Amino acid sequence: SPQLPDGQDLPLPPVILGELKKDAHNPTVCFYGHVDVQPAKKEDGWKTDPYTLTEINGLYLVIRNLYGRGATDNKGPVLAWINAVETFKTLKLAMPVNFKFVIEGMEEAGSLGLEKLLEEENQGFFSDVDYIVISDNLWLSNKKPALTYGSRGDACFFVEVK
């Protein structure tokens, strides 16, 4: 566990593991995201308080822009998966995959403790996972989202999206 400057041990925050009801006919996809952020001060160029999520109207009052530390890295993507599940449930649609979630709070510090948890849960929580989606990415511009298709130690491939 990390230490404070005075040498006191700081306990790691819990990692949230979640799953929804399973359908044996569907593959299981595990979605990873984190909710911790890098430090920020208003003097760094923020127009609003970086730790207060602020909604500012976009074009034609239809698009809503959310500003706040972690809105894109990585709280927004985590919430997007949760909203996707909510949409399927609201519309009473069968989900095409089984959902599992791993949400942590130490990614910005190197994911301290995550490797140990993965090893401990390899034969438990993760034993039926077919695919993993790492939704810790960013938009390259207002019109170009990043599509993460590989990671260290994984097989990589090229995908063209139009």
TrEMBL record:
InterPro entries: Cyt/Met_Dipeptidase, Peptidase_M20
Pfam families, alphabetized: Peptidase_M20
Superkingdom in the source lineage: Eukaryota
Keywords from the named record: Hydrolase, Metal-binding, Protease
Stored Gene3D superfamilies: Zn peptidases
Annotated Gene Ontology cellular component terms: cytosol
Molecular function via GO: dipeptidase activity; metal ion binding
GO biological process: proteolysis
Protein name as annotated: CNDP1 dipeptidase
Organism listed in the record: Todus mexicanus
